[in-house]
Write a structure and sequence with these properties.
Elements (H helix, E strand, L loop, with lengths): L13 H43 L14
């Protein structure tokens, strides 16, 4: 028996397979977008807090940039 008696993909099963194979890809894409937006918002909040610290510093004291830790 070379071929299965019932083909896996036909007119009835095509949309079903596309849905169940595309659903995990769509969910992963959605989660990646949410995660990247969260990371970008975290970085912008840190930048805003640095700017706020610099604005509150008295004019007599020089404001030095924070060292970059690698």
């Amino acid at each position: 028996m070379k071929y299965p008696l019932v083909p896996l993909v036909n007119d009835l099963t095509f949309s079903f397979l596309v849905f169940w194979l595309g659903l995990p890809v769509a969910l992963l894409l959605f989660l990646l977008i949410v995660w990247f937006r969260f990371l970008l918002s975290q970085e912008s909040e840190e930048n805003e807090s640095d700017l706020a610290k610099r604005r509150r510093a008295p004019a007599s004291e020089p404001v030095l940039p924070e060292p970059i830790l690698v």
